[in-house]
Design the sequence.
């Protein structure tokens, strides 16, 4: 038999024996023509069809089926049918080969899909993960996150998110380093003056000199205290804005309350007028409401009003708070009738520690962080804070300064 020749034939025979049941009886021809020797024939003569599976001497399956021959329910005999040796094996072999072909195709498809998925999903994810690890281990090297933004799937979205997060992290690190350098510089100035005054104090020859040195020491101590307080406020600002829950803020009520409080606390003996003006809201608007942190928004208004008070004249000074609305924003204007702002300082005044107060007596009384902190708070609320001059002064000079605060409407 060709099946049993060679290596593959032997392998096939071994496979058949391994898969076949081991308790099958051996098929043997019964001599003498007595069919009762077959148990299936005996069962058929008893009136019940029966079948038996046997194995030949050559290892081939043989199936025998016996059915009764009846007439009027009387069993007259039985009919025995048996398959030829190898017929069942051929059918089983064909089915097994078909299953093997299907299995092989499935394996090949899985391999192709695995390679495709590895190239389109696993490898990009591995590159993104490796880049994230490099960013964590070497911040100063400014590792670049792979750009998969051209992919319109989750991998592309993840790449964009990681790149934006990394750029934000780098920007925050730069801001912290710059802030630390500015703090160090600003703290050294009063410390140098304070140390010089302390070293000179024992050498003072009269009470007048000692009084002047004591005044310098007190001035520098107050300046250091003010700087440290403002630096602490600026450093914890982001954490507080993230930790606290935003709520609905009624800007009319907030500005009206602040106008009353600031008008009494800042005026002192000066004849400075502080007024609050609110425009009628457009049709359909339910009120001047924003979503944010009322304390921090109030801090911004207080900083702007305090800044305006320090520039207006002692007599005839005026500060106006105006509230209006656009289709998308609530607008707060803080206007004064001071000297205005130099044209090249509109952005510079929002830099940390920058201050340009009029008069020598104003030196050291401000840390220069108020406007910087105010812009930081406003931008955290999704708004903007800008400065400009009010036209209409004499000889082309500005009629005062104006700070424009815009916050998104509720």
Sequence:
């Amino acid at each position: 038999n060709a099946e049993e020749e060679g290596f593959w034939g032997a392998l096939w025979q071994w496979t058949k024996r391994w898969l076949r049941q081991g308790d099958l009886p051996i098929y043997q021809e019964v001599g003498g023509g007595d069919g009762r020797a077959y148990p299936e024939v005996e069962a058929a003569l008893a009136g019940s069809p029966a079948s038996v599976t046997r194995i030949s001497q050559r290892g081939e399956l043989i199936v025998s089926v016996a059915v009764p021959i009846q007439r009027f329910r009387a069993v007259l005999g039985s009919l025995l049918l048996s398959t030829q040796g190898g017929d069942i094996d051929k059918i089983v072999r064909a089915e097994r080969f078909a299953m093997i072909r299907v299995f092989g195709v499935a394996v090949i498809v899985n391999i192709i899909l695995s390679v495709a998925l590895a190239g389109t999903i696993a490898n990009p994810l591995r590159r993104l993960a490796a880049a994230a690890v490099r960013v964590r281990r070497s911040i100063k090297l400014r590792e670049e996150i792979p750009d998969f933004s051209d992919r319109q799937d989750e991998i592309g979205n993840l790449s964009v998110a990681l790149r934006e997060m990394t750029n934000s992290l780098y920007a925050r690190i730069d801001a912290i380093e710059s802030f630390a350098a500015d703090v160090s510089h600003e703290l050294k100035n009063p410390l140098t003056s304070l140390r010089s005054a302390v070293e000179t104090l024992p050498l003072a020859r009269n009470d007048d000199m000692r009084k002047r040195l004591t005044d310098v020491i007190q001035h520098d101590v107050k300046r250091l205290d003010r700087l440290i307080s403002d630096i602490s406020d600026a450093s914890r600002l982001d954490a507080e804005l993230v930790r606290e829950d935003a709520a609905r803020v009624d800007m009319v009520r907030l500005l009206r309350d602040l106008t009353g409080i600031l008008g009494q606390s800042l005026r002192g003996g000066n004849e400075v007028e502080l007024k609050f003006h609110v425009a009628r809201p457009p049709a359909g608007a339910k009120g001047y409401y924003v979503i944010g942190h009322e304390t921090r928004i109030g801090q911004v208004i207080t900083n702007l009003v305090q800044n305006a008070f320090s520039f207006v004249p002692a007599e005839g000074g005026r500060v106006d708070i105006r509230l209006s609305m656009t289709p998308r924003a609530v607008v707060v204007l803080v206007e004064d009738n001071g000297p205005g702002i130099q044209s090249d300082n509109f952005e510079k005044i929002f830099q940390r520690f920058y201050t340009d107060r009029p008069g020598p007596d104003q030196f050291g009384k401000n840390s220069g962080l108020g406007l910087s902190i105010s812009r930081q708070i406003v931008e955290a609320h999704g708004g903007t804070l800008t400065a400009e001059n009010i036209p209409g002064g004499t000889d082309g000079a500005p009629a005062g300064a104006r700070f424009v605060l815009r916050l998104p409407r509720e």
In short: Residues 360-364 have pLDDT under 50 and may be disordered. The first helix runs from residue 6 to 19. The first strand starts at residue 50 and ends at 55.
